[in-house]
């Protein structure tokens, strides 16, 4: 089944070329079906890139999905045109009276700031508080995962001495958990962040289950309150070249970044990376939509 997106969204052309089944509003109105309503709070600076990456995975399931993109009202994006935001995004004040079957809160390049110093932190905490009553399951990605752990459970992040970037091997700790159905015992996933989580702080909360992690990259997939909150500390949604683009961006900024680990063949940035995580990205999103959204949400919200 398709995802329903605005007819003029730039991601549409890319997804159509990849044979992702999409549908615009005109055709969707003729379908006699209860679609899943998914809200995406996109905090990434390159919003159009993140839109395409997320829609690619949301459109790879048998479920019909309506997607609403939301931006912060208290922070103005510097990397996405105001026209694009006005045309395709809403703000919290315009949707807070609604119910959503699922929500995604993306990462953001603000990890090196204390949470309370982020200019939209108060707005984000209002949204996360609202999600507890108005969203069946929320999937938090990278900094969004750390923000959720801090807000819901008081677990703070730990700074790395330098940026963690690369594609790392992960192990499964809870093989019977539905979110991991179909996962290999060991699998790969990209990470790109400046902070980590303390395992003992996670273990102190019985309502949090650590499902997967990496010896090099730390805790990876966490589930809380029976799937009401799901936290993923890396970026399974990333395209093959996303880490390379971030590396080049950091070079131009004069940050002098380390080469992403286990990413470029022979550690040669002149060679094209090989995607080793795509299938597990599809599994993660399809399992989330099926088991924690579709099978858990009411057919009709009160």
Count the E strands. Answer: 12
- Overall mean pLDDT: 90
What is the helix fraction of residues, given as a range? 25-40%
Q: Spell the H/E element sequence.
A: EHEHEHEHEHEHEHEEHEEEHH
Number of domains: 1
Number of helices: 10
% residues in beta strands: 15-25%
What top-tier CATH class fits best?
Alpha Beta
Show unreliable segments.
27-32
User: What general outline do the C-alpha atoms trace?
Assistant: globular
- Span between termini: 26 Å
Major sheet size, sense and barrel closure? 12 strands, mixed
Radius of gyration: 18 Å
In CATH, the architecture is 3-Layer(aba) Sandwich
Structural class comes to alpha/beta
Q: What's the CATH topology label?
A: Rossmann fold
Task: State the CATH superfamily name.
Answer: Class I glutamine amidotransferase (GATase) domain
């Amino acid at each position: 089944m398709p995802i329903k997106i605005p007819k003029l969204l730039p991601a549409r052309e890319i997804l159509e070329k990849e044979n992702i089944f999409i549908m615009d509003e005109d055709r969707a109105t003729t379908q006699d079906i209860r679609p899943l309503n998914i809200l995406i709070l996109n905090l990434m600076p390159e919003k159009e890139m993140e839109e395409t990456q997320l829609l690619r995975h949301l459109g790879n399931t048998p479920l019909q999905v309506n997607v609403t993109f939301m931006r912060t009202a208290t922070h103005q994006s510097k990397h996405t045109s105001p026209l694009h935001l006005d045309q395709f995004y809403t703000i919290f004040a315009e949707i807070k009276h609604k119910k959503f079957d699922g929500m995604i809160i993306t990462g953001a390049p603000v990890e090196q700031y204390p949470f309370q110093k982020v200019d939209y932190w108060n707005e984000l905490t209002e949204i996360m508080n609202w999600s507890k009553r108005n969203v069946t399951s929320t999937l938090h990605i990278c900094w969004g995962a750390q923000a959720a752990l801090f807000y819901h459970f008081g677990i703070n992040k730990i700074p790395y001495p330098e940026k963690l970037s690369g594609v790392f091997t992960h192990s499964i700790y809870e093989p019977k958990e539905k979110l991991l159905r179909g996962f290999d015992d060991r699998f790969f996933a990209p990470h790109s962040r400046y902070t980590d989580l303390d395992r003992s702080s996670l273990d102190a909360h019985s309502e949090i289950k650590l499902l997967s992690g990496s010896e090099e990259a730390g805790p990876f997939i966490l589930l809380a309150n029976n799937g009401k909150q799901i936290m993923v500390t890396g970026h399974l949604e990333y395209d093959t070249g996303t880490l390379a683009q971030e590396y080049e961006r950091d070079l131009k900024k004069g940050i002098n970044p380390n080469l992403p680990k286990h990413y470029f063949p022979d550690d040669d940035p002149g060679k094209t990376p090989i995607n080793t995580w795509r299938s597990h990205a599809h599994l993660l999103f399809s399992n989330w939509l099926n088991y924690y959204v579709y099978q858990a949400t009411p057919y009709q919200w009160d």
